[in-house]
Specification:
By secondary structure, this protein is an alpha/beta fold. The protein has one domain: Glutaconate Coenzyme A-transferase (3-Layer(aba) Sandwich). It has five helices and 13 strands. It has a ten-stranded mixed beta sheet. It has a three-stranded mixed beta sheet with strand order 7-6-9, with no helix packed on it. β1, α2 and β2 form a beta-alpha-beta unit. Keywords: Transferase. One of its GO terms (molecular function) is CoA-transferase activity. Pfam families: CoA_trans.
Length: 220
């Protein structure tokens, strides 16, 4: 069966490494903080000026004074630090963030990402995503494989305004784990119970499929 948002977050948490500084975008990426493996230590950063974000708060436990760059309420771990946006973006632009996890509306097979604007809808700008995709060397996208109409979000070319060019390294969807390299999508893992044919049908871009595609291992 396809993964839900929590399943996607749990799978991305497996990509964390001890000592990483990690930036989490709004939406599904924020949930990754709840599933850090017990044997490692990572620090979550938000571009509005916090290093040391904790778990995503449960309903009723929110503190309105603690928010991330997307104005979502967050928690802070003991020892967390707060600083101005200039310092935060200096950290990002200086390549001091080892992993960035973002949501997306579309990803192209060459690694382009569109995650900030739908034509005709008013937005104030793409915010810190522009700096994140321009500076980070390891960008994982967390998203559903298709949109609400059932159309693929993994495309040959993005149709929406781009956030960044040739920057996405890996995608984790409700159906699969996909690596982006050599101008194509490379299938690495499939969600439990999901077939390779289902993933092929849901992928509009070029999909490279190896002889054996293992199922994701998601802990309860």
């Amino acid at each position: 069966m396809a993964l839900d948002k929590i399943g996607i977050a749990k799978r991305i948490a497996q990509e964390l490494e001890d000592g990483f500084y990690v930036n989490l975008g709004i939406g599904i990426p924020t949930l990754v903080a709840n599933y850090v493996p017990e044997n490692i230590q990572v620090e979550f950063q938000s571009e509005n000026g916090i290093l040391g974000m904790g778990n995503f708060p449960f309903e009723g436990e929110e503190d309105a004074d603690l928010i991330n760059a997307g104005k979502q309420t967050i928690t802070a771990k003991p020892g967390a630090v707060f600083f101005d946006s200039a310092t935060s973006f200096g950290m990002i632009r200086g390549n001091h963030v080892q992993l960035t996890v973002l949501g997306a509306m579309e990803v192209a097979q060459n690694g382009d990402i569109a995650n900030w604007k739908i034509p005709g809808k008013m937005v104030k700008g793409m915010g810190g995503a522009m700096d994140l995709v321009g500076s980070a060397e390891n960008i994982i996208v967390a998203m559903m494989h298709t949109n609400k109409k059932g159309d693929s979000k993994l495309l040959k070319e993005c149709s929406l305004p781009l956030t960044g060019v040739n920057c996405v390294t890996k995608i984790v969807t409700n159906l699969a784990v996909i690596e982006v390299k050599d101008g194509a999508f490379h299938l690495i893992e499939r969600a439990p119970g999901v077939s390779v044919d289902e993933i092929r049908k849901a992928t509009a871009g070029d999909l490279v499929v190896p002889d054996h595609v293992p199922e994701m291992k998601i802990e309860d």
